[in-house]
Design brief:
The chain is of the alpha/beta class. It has 9 helices and 7 strands, in the order βαβαααβαβαββααβα. Strands 2-3-1-4-7 form a 5-stranded parallel beta sheet, sandwiched between helices. The chain has a two-stranded antiparallel sheet with strand order 5-6. Helix 2 packs across helix 3. The longest helix has 15 residues. The N and C termini lie close together (11 Å). The structure holds adenosine monophosphate (AMP).
Length: 205
């Protein structure tokens, strides 16, 4: 199975992608996580990405497309994969069509005014990427691996405004793009985590 998760920053794509990838035995491919790894490694792509990510801007399509093309050739993708955060532009969606046949696109829908609160309250594990929210988790270490949680540099109120604006301008058109392709499944992301997972399971069945 090959899936795409669409949805604005803070919609819960990462959390849901983690769960669905595990239950479907497919690879979870987060373009944001891949870029953060490049930044940590100090590669050329990482250096370029760092500034853009901190400003809430997108990384150029060519870099992302190359990265994803290589990633889906890895052995853990043989049974399928789930893209979380890719594609984010029409050019990326066009490129994706050339490299994979997607079975379904899950659009996680959350009202715009809820997103800011969700993102600024998010804390992540810098080691395994697990995400938490301060309203539901009072601890300051990761439940999975024990690492100290932190706030992402681009989860601050100033950067988030720009990320949401960029999303509306460049990524929102993909909803219509995939509706026309007959692949779009919209799920209500403004519910509890388990309820959203259940809706996604129904949508991909
Ligand atoms: P995410 O972890 O998905 O929220 O991504 C964090 C940041 O990485 C985004 O705000 C972008 O700056 C960059 N990024 C991730 N995926 C893409 C993509 N497909 N195209 C362009 N930029 C991306």
């Amino acid at each position: 199975m090959k899936l795409v998760f669409l949805g604005p920053p803070g919609a819960g794509k990462g959390t849901q992608a983690e769960r669905i990838a595990e239950s479907e035995h497919i690879a979870h491919i987060s373009s944001g996580d891949m870029l953060r790894t490049e930044i940590r490694k100090g590669t050329e792509a990482g250096l370029l990405a760092k500034d853009l990510i901190e400003k809430g801007e997108f990384v150029p399509d060519e870099i992302i497309i190359e990265m994803v093309k290589d990633r889906i050739l890895e052995p853990d993708c043989a049974n399928g994969f789930l893209f979380d955060g890719f594609p984010r532009t029409v050019a990326q969606a066009d490129a994706l069509k050339e490299i994979a046949d997607i079975d379904a696109v899950i659009d996680i829908d959350v009202p715009f005014d809820r997103l800011l609160e969700r993102i600024t309250g998010r804390r992540v594990c810098p080691n395994c990427g697990m995400a938490y929210h301060i309203s539901t988790y009072a601890g300051d270490t990761c439940e999975k691996c024990g690492e100290k949680l932190c706030q992402r540099d681009d989860d601050t109120a100033e950067t988030v405004q720009n990320r949401l604006t960029v999303y509306e301008r460049l990524t929102r058109p993909l909803t219509e793009y995939y509706r026309k392709e007959g692949l779009l499944r919209i799920v209500n992301g403004d519910l509890g985590i388990d309820e959203v997972t259940e809706q996604i399971r129904k949508a991909i069945r």
